[in-house]
Design a protein that fits this description.
The complex is a heterodimer of chains A (173) and B (81). Chain A is built from 4 helices and 5 strands; from the N terminus they run βαββββααα. Chain A is α+β, with helices and mostly antiparallel strands and 173 residues long. Chain B has 81 residues and is mostly helical. Chain B has a domain of 50 residues. Classes of the chains: A alpha+beta (173), B mainly alpha (81).
Chain lengths: 173, 81
């Protein structure tokens, strides 16, 4: 049974800004990529009319050891953007699954702050006048996906795919 | 951000630029015509696919859609909301 984790954060940027910044959130000072390790894939759906961006990320391979699935929904609320993040962390290593799940959740929780800070950094750089007094937002919001730092290393693949999905979804709109 | 295939990074940058301006200037404004970047996307995607093959990335896992399908994980029920 996977462990479930969720949190909600606010970005002091409009939904349009967050949606545009989303594709440019890496690299940032909190998150840069180097080592090749676990690859992750991201799917996303953008609804420009309702102003909803949903991202869904999972790791490829090593899923028996640990699988992390993250879903983030960005919605426009007032002039701000609320990100609701859900994560499911599982492991099927006999005898260790419980410990690994607990480790995964702990890791994920800690990484959330970094993700949010990193995304806010990019947003502030892109839209300097926006949210001037807002600082980093109310606790952060969240850009992304992912969970284990190692699992994010190969986010390039995910980004590639995400864009592809955006294009696909446009085609079917 | 570089591509997973080093040789695709230049193409990725070109595509990223095209995508980002299309996204902000057209898509978000209601223009759903995505033909602007389609040719660069094709070339870039071919490059990435090749890189994926070389890195033995499982295409089956990549092509599988989860978001928006029944396979998507659901938030466990809680008392509130």
């Amino acid at each position: 049974m996977a462990r479930y984790f969720e949190n909600t954060t606010t970005f002091n940027f409009s939904w349009d800004q967050v949606a545009c910044g989303y594709w440019k959130r890496y690299p940032n000072p909190q998150r840069f990529f180097n080592a090749k390790s676990v690859k992750i894939i991201e799917e996303s759906i953008v609804d420009p009319k309702e102003k909803v961006l949903v991202t869904y990320t999972r790791n490829l391979g090593y899923t028996k050891v640990m699988s992390v699935v993250e879903r983030v929904e960005y919605r426009s609320v007032g002039g701000q953007t609320i990100a609701h993040r859900s994560a499911w962390i599982d492991s099927q290593v006999f005898g260790f699954s419980r410990a690994i799940r607990a480790f995964g959740v702990d890791r994920f929780r800690k990484n959330c702050t970094q993700m949010v800070n990193g995304f806010n950094h990019v947003l502030h750089a892109m839209f300097p006048r926006a949210s001037g007094a807002g600082g980093g937002g109310v606790g952060g919001g969240a850009p992304v996906r992912e969970a284990l730092r190692e699992m994010r290393d190969a986010a390039a693949a995910a980004t590639d795919r995400a864009k592809h999905n955006v294009l696909s979804s446009v085609n079917t709109t | 951000m570089n591509s997973i295939g080093e040789e695709c990074t230049d193409l990725k940058k070109k595509y990223d630029d095209c995508f980002n301006s299309w996204f902000s200037e057209r898509f978000l404004k209601g223009d759903h015509d995505d033909s602007v970047c389609s040719s660069i996307f094709k070339v870039y995607q071919d490059c990435v696919k090749n890189a994926m093959k070389q890195q033995n990335i499982d295409f089956k896992e990549i092509d599988k859609d989860v978001l928006g399908t029944d396979n998507e994980f659901k938030v466990p029920p809680t008392e509130n909301s």
